[in-house]
Amino acid sequence: MHIENYSFGTITVDGKVYERDLIIFPDKIKSGWWRKEGHSLLTEDLDEVLRYKPEVLIVGRGASNCMEITSATQRALSEKNIKLFESDTYKAVQLFNELTRQGKNVVGAFHLTC
User: Fold this and answer.
1) Is pLDDT at 109 greater than 90 in this prediction?
2) Angle CA 55–73–22, to nearest 5
3) Where is it found, in Gene Ontology cellular component terms (predicted)?
4) Bridge-partner residues for 5, per DSSP?
């Protein structure tokens, strides 16, 4: 999967435009991803990612880094040996594309707005 463009509220992946938060797996996209507590990323929000066990999880925390990742979520990822990279969504998109080009087993979870 390749992210062609991101701007506030919209992301284009492999030619398809999405306007809701999403998780990009190597073989599928989960669109309409929403967290139980909105701007807090809880462990249960990533159940499918934890089952998938990627080498790396990239989290785009929004254009202004509004989404917080709880310490419990960070611990759960660490316990599964999943490396976490988090940043604003603009930088997260760049890193996602770079690591997928390198052939890494990467999942990206992207908050598209604030």
Assistant:
1) yes
2) 65
3) cytoplasm
4) 12
